[in-house]
Design brief:
The complex is a heterodimer. By secondary structure, chain A is α+β, with helices and mostly antiparallel strands. Chain A is built from 14 helices and 20 strands. Chain A starts with a helix and ends with a strand. Chain B has 3 domains: 132 residues, no CATH class; 72 residues, no CATH class; 114 residues, no CATH class. A 4-stranded antiparallel sheet of chain B has the order 1-2-4-3. The longest helix of chain B has 20 residues. Classes of the chains: A alpha+beta, B mainly alpha. At the A-B interface, helix 6, helix 7 and helix 12 of A face helix 7, strand 3 and helix 15 of B.
């Protein structure tokens, strides 16, 4: 990586206030660093306060700075078994790379290493030309995909963590990762001791993995007489009921035919009003239609919860010893800051503006190729094979992305 | 409302705080229990262990609750002293089953009292009445997960529970299962505590321990050894799917790679065979791959031979591609493989030809 990036990173860290590096229970965390151009992670570091961390960072200027989600008796021990695990924050990682968005057609490309075929957008599972799965990708982010990621954050918190898990607003922090998405750190003591298996259950919960609607009150009491949950119920029980109601309410005949047998679809569509009314009634009644069974209801339920399940990187949530980006550190692949987001005003949060670390100065760069990008208020591209002077933050962003070089 | 727990209850539920303090108050020394005057207690303890070896779930004998109470810690000491994991698991399982059967006969309030006393769970009388169902109890999410993750039935998954405000709502049947499983886990977990590693049975009790171990030996059926080399037809669908991906050069996720490697190593494939498998993958680096495979096979590093992840984990990571008939009875890919092998080589089944070249 270019010396100029490293120098700018050093300048940023020199000017950083020590308290910006503060993390709860810092002396119990492991710190880890990735140097510019380095492949090996420097691990098992312990810092007792932000000032010693700052001193280290300014001196070594790493490209990436992480701390453990876990708390240890001896974070500096090199053998994981000797660290003495005391617990860990519960972490959710929302990465726009994992979410299918329409904007990917505009800024992402993939190509097959085997035959060279390529295209725009979300990469296919296997090459449509040769069938091989050796797919290389070149991905970018834009306001749209970051907005989708933000919506996921709000969904996880408002739909799951706060109502279902009882997480208080003082118990979690939201961070923009500095690149493609967001992290939610739940720090409440109640979740600290969760085992990896327990965390897996939590991840499965928000992703709707393994959901069985029969466990949520849907059942056949007599032949073709279906009972089920109330939309007012809590947890997944009420969620499934509400999702089903909304889905059937909005569904066209074609939508329903795509899910259940044509006869059932038509019957349900023609009797929509009656069906919805009976779900609203107290107690709710779910089976007033001919030819309509628990199986068909199950199929519609699964289709209707599609938008309610959360797109998280489950590996991060399940891992009770994860390394997570340090707040206010710079992301070596973007030059943007890992920034704490005030949840009460998350709607107005503009990551590409507020996470900008370099607000002054400009830089002359040669751009190989880039789609349209915006950093701060500056926009550029699509652009190819050009040398030009740009604001420092934008220039560093393109250099960190590997799309430009300083001139 | 707090109910008084009787001596009979202490005998039935050895995990209660009251039971522990009752035993502590008696200030008994383990070695003394081999003496003639305690022969009744020793006999009870030995019967407990014998029952567990023979999978015999017997309800608590309440004719003499006091000796019944003391017989439990004595039996437990003998089991820990045996250093046999097989016996430990069997004892914990059968004791838990006994507790479950006892609990099923108890009224709701008492189940709650027992659960609260036995574990540090903040269980509440929730009395949640839904239209067609009732949940009398609520338990904090993290306490629920401490135990429920060891169950395999889908209805124990958190996603299939009524979860609200940080609590999981339960009916009596579920709480009963949770308590008995919590008891089982506690017995097993304690065995791996450091102080118990050093624990030795007093001299006077050793003859009884030998007797137990002999009886256990007769009842123990060792896990069949896995064959040396992969039998393709017995592979579970998840492993087949990962191998297909590999064939098409897909670069695998860490979990997929780990699952495939551990599976192969555990069915007796050599490091070189596993290495060959990955040769086609987009980001293949032979040096790195060899190191990782040798690590997983326990040849280097921590010397632990890793097992593949269980089905639940594979499912969470999106590697379960759906069940076939064998999956329904398996919780683990190796379990699936063993079972299918057995059926394939059994009467009427085709004998699986080893993939390995002779």
């Amino acid at each position: 990586m270019h010396e100029i990036v490293r120098n700018e990173f050093r300048r940023y860290y020199s000017g950083l206030r020590e308290e910006d590096l503060e993390v709860p229970d810092m002396p119990q965390r492991e710190y880890a660093f990735l140097q510019f151009g380095g492949e090996v992670m420097i691990r098992h570091m312990k810092f007792v306060n932000p000032s010693s961390l700052k001193e280290y960072i300014v001196e070594n200027t790493p490209a990436h700075i992480y701390h453990s989600s876990a708390y240890y008796q001896m974070p500096e021990a090199t053998d994981m078994n000797e660290k003495g695990w005391l617990g860990a924050d519960l972490v959710f990682d929302i990465d726009s790379d994992h979410i299918r968005t329409e904007c990917k057609d505009r800024h992402d490309r993939w190509h097959c290493i085997e035959c060279g075929m390529g295209g725009a957008g979300f990469p296919p599972e296997s090459c449509p030309h040769c069938g091989m799965k050796k797919i290389d990708t070149r991905t970018w982010i834009c306001e749209d995909c970051l907005q989708v990621a933000k919506n996921e954050v709000i969904k996880i918190l408002d739909e799951y963590l706060i109502p279902d898990f009882g997480v208080a607003e003082t118990d979690f922090e939201v961070f923009f990762s500095g690149h493609r998405g967001y992290h939610i750190h739940v720090r409440s003591k109640t979740f600290r001791g969760l085992s990896a298996d327990g965390r897996r259950e939590v991840a499965d919960y928000v992703r709707g993995i393994g959901i069985d609607i029969r466990s949520h009150g849907f059942r056949e009491v007599k032949s073709r007489i279906l009972v089920g949950p109330d939309m007012k119920d809590g947890g997944w029980r009420g969620r499934v009921a509400r999702a089903l109601y909304e889905f059937v309410n909005r569904a066209s005949l074609e939508d329903l035919k795509g899910i259940v047998a044509p006869g059932v679809a038509k019957n349900l569509f023609d009797n929509k009003e009656k069906f919805l009314k009976s779900i609203e009634s107290d107690p709710p009644y779910w089976g007033s239609l001919k030819g309509y069974t628990l199986e068909s209801l199950e199929k519609i339920a699964i289709a209707s919860i599609k938008d309610l399940i959360c797109n998280i990187d489950e590996r991060v949530t399940i891992d009770s010893k994860r390394l997570i980006r340090c707040p206010n550190s710079l992301h070596g692949k973007s030059g943007l800051r890992t920034l704490r987001v005030d949840y009460s005003s998350i709607d107005d949060f503009d990551p590409l503006k507020e996470a900008v670390a370099f607000r002054h100065g400009s830089i002359r760069i040669y751009v190989k190729e880039a789609p349209r990008v915006r950093i701060g208020d500056e926009e550029l591209g699509p652009i190819k094979d050009k040398t030009l002077e740009v604001p420092l933050a934008l220039g560093l962003y393109l250099i960190c992305r590997g799309a430009a070089e300083p001139r | 409302m707090s109910l008084m727990l009787t001596k009979e209850d202490l005998a039935k539920y050895p995990f209660l705080k009251q039971t522990t303090s009752y035993v502590e108050r008696m200030q008994l020394n383990l070695g003394d229990l081999a003496a003639v005057e305690y022969s009744g207690i020793l006999r009870k303890a030995l019967t407990r262990i014998k029952d567990s070896i023979e999978r015999n779930v017997r309800l608590t004998d309440l004719t003499d609750p006091e000796s019944e109470i003391i017989s439990y810690p004595l039996a437990l000491a003998l089991v820990y002293g045996s250093k046999s994991n097989w016996l430990l698991n069997r004892f914990a399982t059968i004791e838990a089953k006994r507790v479950e059967e006892e609990l099923r006969k108890e009224p709701r309030d008492k189940i709650l009292e027992i659960a609260k006393s036995g574990f540090s769970w903040e269980i509440e009388n929730a009395n949640l009445k839904l239209e067609w169902e009732e949940f009398p109890f609520s338990i904090p999410l993290q306490s629920y997960l401490e135990v429920a993750t060891s169950f395999n039935d889908a209805h124990w998954k958190l996603v299939n529970r009524y979860v609200k405000g940080g609590f999981v709502f339960l009916n009596s049947g579920s709480l009963t299962r949770l308590v008995s499983e919590g008891f089982k886990i506690r017995i097993i977990k304690r065995a791996s505590e450091r102080e118990l590693h050093k624990f030795r049975i007093p001299e006077a009790l050793i003859p009884y321990l030998d007797e137990i171990l002999m009886h256990a030996q007769e009842n123990m059926r060792f896990d069949e050894e896995l064959p040396q080399g992969l039998v393709s037809e017995a592979r579970p669908p998840c492993i087949v799917a990962i191998m297909e991906d590999v064939k098409f050069g897909k670069s695998l996720t860490h979990m997929a790679r780990f699952a495939l490697t551990t599976f192969m190593v555990n069915v007796g494939e050599s490091v070189d065979d596993v290495l060959k498998l990955f040769g086609n993958v987009a980001d293949f680096d032979e040096g790195k791959a060899r190191y990782q495979i040798e690590h997983i096979a326990g040849m280097i590093g921590s010397r632990t031979k890793y097992k593949p992840p269980k089905c639940d984990v594979l499912r969470s990571f999106g590697l379960c591609i759906g069940m076939d008939e064998f999956c329904r009875n398996a919780k683990h890919p190796l379990n699936y493989y063993k079972r299918k092998l057995k059926i394939m080589s059994g009467p009427g089944g085709q004998t699986g030809a080893r993939d390995r070249k002779e």
